[in-house]
Specification:
Elements (H helix, E strand, L loop, with lengths): L3 E12 L2 E13 L2 E6 L11 E11 L1 E7 L14 H14 L4 H17 L2 E7 L4 H14 L2 E5 L1 E2 L13 H17 L5 E3 L2 E2 L7 H14 L3 E5 L3 H10 L6 H6 L10 E5 L5 H10 L2 E4 L1 H6 L7 H6 L3 E4 L11 H19 L8 H13 L16 E4 L12 H10 L7 E6 L2 E2 L2
Parallel strand pairs: 1-4, 5-6, 6-7, 7-9, 8-10, 11-12, 12-13, 13-14
Antiparallel strand pairs: 1-2, 2-3, 4-15, 15-16, 16-17
Helix pairs in contact: 2-3, 3-4, 4-5, 11-12
The chain binds guanine (GUN) and fe (iii) ion.
């Protein structure tokens, strides 16, 4: 049985905006789940081993709700255009290379290895349209110990010939092949997810087939929504019968309700779209760095929080230039301040604890009871050694956490990482 205590300075956000800290306390892991935070070890647990972190910070693992594994290779490059041009000039040419299993193995090995070292414990991942390379990525992700959904991308229109799938039938058949292979592998931590790239990339016929596959295998869904103004206009042209962008997904049963669905961005969502997301329980993956890098705009996150939408953070590599979820937290705070200052001064900017919640329990809810140290939550934890950035004074635990996130302690200060109670760093 995997039962033990972690001793240190424990922080989590059981509610949005409410950071709780426990100085020099004991976090109990029983059978891979959290089972309490204690000032002293209760007698009945006295036989459990204690891992003393010597004053380190102990926080829930980060959940990256949206990241593109094949784009990791060109992160930090090509930030000179808006979304549709960026796809044509940078993303699509790179993704074409994943038809070659050797290239896929090389590039995905770097991605998986770096994600393992990062603060991320769970991720919702786009691969490419290639089923074989997607299975290679799933094999590599499984070895990291991280928990992830990995989607073979579907795209049968509006892309270069070398990347576009031949037609809806072949795209659907390849999707079933990848799902079947993934199930045969009996992964513990790695799951398939239905992944229409976005409405411009998928014909109606393909969307219908994906909806059937989704129902048959009871899978979640990931895609992009209302990211960029040019994209929103293109969707109006390609899908004139849809009431709004999200309605196009919904008309195929690929927008929440019976399936867990995460939509990346939602920068330009209309009130009707926001209302539908709320009704259908769709998760928003807020990707602030990407929104800045490809000049998409600033998502109205305060509005989404006030309306009670499900919301988490994503890095959206390579729209986002880094896999660091600490950086995603900082970027979400910075863009919310610009929104408040430049767009609408009646909209309060986010607080650190609100963004921390989005990066942990907010996105974690896509995986179930994840992202908090409340009893019954899965034991995903990071031990952070913030002494790698020495400070001349004693500061509080909450100050230490905020500083560790802003100063990027995830780069060189992750001492230990636990996922479902199993140590993977
Ligand atoms: N919309 C469709 N594909 C993509 C992608 O690869 N990245 C981003 N940011 N948006 C998209
Ligand atoms: Fe994306």
């Amino acid at each position: 049985m995997n039962n033990f205590f972690l001793k240190g300075n424990i922080c989590h956000t059981p509610e949005i905006g409410k950071l709780e800290t426990f100085e020099n306390s004991y976090l109990l892991c029983e059978n891979g789940k959290c089972n309490g935070i204690f000032a002293d070890i209760p007698e009945k647990y006295s036989s459990y081993p204690v891992q003393d972190t010597n004053g380190s910070l102990i926080i829930p693992g980060m959940v990256d709700l949206h990241i593109h594994a094949p784009q990791y290779a060109f992160r930090g490059l090509g930030m000179d255009c808006e979304l549709l041009d960026w796809l044509d000039r940078h993303a699509f040419p790179e993704e074409t290379k994943y038809s070659d299993p050797d290239y896929a193995q090389k590039a995905y090995s770097i991605f998986a290895s770096d994600l393992k070292k990062s603060a991320t414990t769970r991720a919702v991942i786009f691969a490419t349209r290639h089923s074989q390379a997607t299975i290679q990525l799933m094999d590599l992700m499984e070895k990291t110990g991280l928990v992830s959904f990995v989607g073979k991308v579907n795209m049968d229109r509006e892309a270069p010939e070398a990347l576009k799938e031949e037609n809806a039938d072949s795209s659907a058949a390849d999707t079933v092949r990848y799902i079947t292979k993934a199930f045969e592998r009996n992964y513990k931590n790695t799951y398939p997810i239905i992944t229409p790239r976005f409405i411009p990339s998928c014909t109606d016929s393909l969307m219908e087939k994906l909806s059937e596959i989704r129902r048959k295998y009871n899978l979640p869904v990931q895609s992009h929504l209302s990211e960029n103004l040019g994209e929103v206009e293109l969707v109006k042209k390609l899908k004139p019968d849809a009431l709004f962008y999200g309605d196009a997904y919904d008309s195929f049963g690929l927008f929440g309700k019976e399936s867990n669905t995460v939509m990346a961005h939602c920068v330009h969502s209309t009130d009707a779209e926001i209302e539908r997301m709320k009704e259908n329980g769709v998760w928003v993956a807020h990707c602030p760095d990407s929104n800045m890098n490809v000049s998409s705009g600033v998502a109205p996150i305060r509005k989404y929080i006030d309306k009670g939408l499900r919301i988490g953070l994503g890095t959206d590599v390579a729209g986002g230039h880094t896999q660091s979820m600490f950086r995603a937290i900082v970027a979400s705070l910075q863009v919310s301040k610009l929104y408040w200052r430049l767009i609408d001064q009646s909209v309060k900017h986010l607080s650190f604890s609100e963004s921390f919640y989005m990066a942990t329990k907010g996105g974690g809810s896509f995986f179930g009871k994840v992202g908090s140290f409340e009893k019954g939550y899965e034991f995903d934890a990071l031990v952070l050694d913030d002494s790698v950035r020495p400070h001349p004074q004693e500061i509080s635990v909450s100050q230490r956490l905020e500083r560790a996130v802003y100063l990027g302690i995830d780069l060189d200060g992750i001492k230990e990482k636990y996922i479902r109670g199993i140590k993977c760093i």
